[in-house]
Amino acid sequence: MKKIILLACIAFTVNSQAQLLNKLNKAKNQASQASEVVDKASEAKGGKKKKGGGGFPTGLKLDWTQFKQTPAITFSSLLYGTTAGTINSYTATFIPNKTVDGKTVHHFENQSEYLRIKVFKDNQYMNYFEYSGNQVFDDGKKTKFNEPTSRYQRDGEWVGHSESFITDWGPGNYRLDFYAGDKMFYSFDFELVKLTNNDAYAAMNEMYVVRGPWNNFAYLNHADTGNLLFGFYLTHEEFMPNPSNSRKTNKSVKWSVNMFKDNKLYAQHYGNGPNTAQVEQAKWNDNQCAFKLVNKPGEIKFADLTDGSYRIELTVEGEANPRLYKFTVKDKKIVLIPEQDRSKNTDPTRLIEGWNDFFWLKLEK
């Protein structure tokens, strides 16, 4: 009799557990179906499902009255910080380090809610990265978007250096949305391109390169020495620039610069004959030169610029035509392009920020 009762109890327990499991599976299926309904409704409204998780911390409420100027990312840091690998080392300007309740932001304790970048590929949200705000300079008006020295959790998973390569998401048109606290204050667009080498004996069969503003902008710089400097960007996309040595990936490229004032040759790059740049494979580097006058000895100081219309012709070996850049000096000041002029730029999230020492020039098409 005891044996019959024991068997009955076991049967009842197994049956109860089976019923409970069925209920749990049913609830799980219902939740999954509900999630699919929400996703489809979102897509029907023009939204897209997020890849790599969608958790994005709300962000700190910052005191945006701390600085009079609107925040931005310096254009020069965008061009050296955005590579075919990581997105890092940007210089932000006019980012508050105080919250609305007067507390000072702590770069470690508040890291998950302070400086972040959302990454979009072909208009689809991919993921976000956190950055350290511990490097502040120029009277607190500049803050670096540096990679954190410690790992952090994103969507419950630990994130480190190896997870910060945009090449993991493949080629496409990318947009970086920069956040400080809960505010998106700047956007930057570029293209990531994948090149393929069909040579079966090659040491490298694929290569990623970034394209965008590097091709279309140059700059004048007011150097600490007082000199007027001209800068521009070069890279190359050859798998084997030196056929005799596959390990030598740099390429020697000659270049020269002439500056005209009111259509008359006024100055040339400093040096005798063309300059030579060691151009890196798939990496944009800027090249600079000072100017010497053509009608008398001496370098051109920034303060020497007098009113007039200027044209710079940059000749690069291997390019069919010179690159042309124009600018005007009025009241002994370089007239800013509209994208850099805060009084004319209508979209602060796209401002070309040159601070007070970089004057950006657009390539004449």
Which key terms come to mind for this protein?
5-stranded antiparallel beta sheet; disordered N terminus; 365 residues
Folded structure, characterized:
The chain is α+β, with helices and mostly antiparallel strands and 365 residues long. It contains three helices and 21 strands. The chain has helices spanning 2-44, 75-81, 213-216, and strands at residues 72-73, 90-93, 115-121, 124-131, 136-137, 142-145, 152-154, 157-159, 172-180, 183-196, 206-211, 217-222, 228-234, 251-261, 264-269, 275-279, 285-293, 308-316, 323-330, 333-334, 358-362. Strands 12, 13, 14, 15, 16, 17, 18, 19, 20 and 21 form a ten-stranded antiparallel beta sheet that branches. A five-stranded antiparallel beta sheet has the order 4-3-9-10-11. The termini are far apart. Residues 1-53 have low confidence and may be disordered.
Secondary structure topology:
Layout: H1 2-44, E1 72-73, H2 75-81, E2 90-93, E3 115-121, E4 124-131, E5 136-137, E6 142-145, E7 152-154, E8 157-159, E9 172-180, E10 183-196, E11 206-211, H3 213-216, E12 217-222, E13 228-234, E14 251-261, E15 264-269, E16 275-279, E17 285-293, E18 308-316, E19 323-330, E20 333-334, E21 358-362
Antiparallel strand pairs: 1-2, 2-6, 3-4, 3-9, 5-6, 7-8, 9-10, 10-11, 12-13, 12-21, 13-17, 14-15, 14-16, 14-18, 15-17, 18-19, 19-20
